[in-house]
Amino acid sequence: MEGYCVKCKEKREIAGGKEVSMKGKGGVERKAMKGKCPKCGTTMFRILGNKK
Q1: Which of 3, 5, 12, 41 fits as disulfide partner to 46, beta carbons 3.0 to 4.6 Å?
Q2: Gap between the Cα atoms of 35 and 18, Å rounded
């Protein structure tokens, strides 16, 4: 899965990504992908769609 690294300011493949859930507006659960940037090690985060 590809995400945006705010430190490198580039799109990169998320290393060691895992799916997490987070709170959204109105108490709705939202899916997201969380991992590390392979180049600088900064935490990367990408919000996923609602489709299952």
Answers
A1: 3
A2: 6
Residue 1 to residue 35: CA distance in whole angstroms: 10
Please check whether residue 52 lies inside any domain of the structure: no
- Tally of domains in the chain: 1
Q: Which domain holds residue 33?
A: 2-47
Place of tokens 């060691």: 16
40 inside domain: yes
Residue type for position 34: K
Q: Facing residues of 21 across strands?
A: 31
Q: 1-48: per-residue pLDDT in tens? A: 899 999 999 999 999 999 999 888 888 899 999 999 999 999 999 999
The predicted model scores a pTM of: 0.73
Q: What secondary structure letter does DSSP report for 9?
A: T
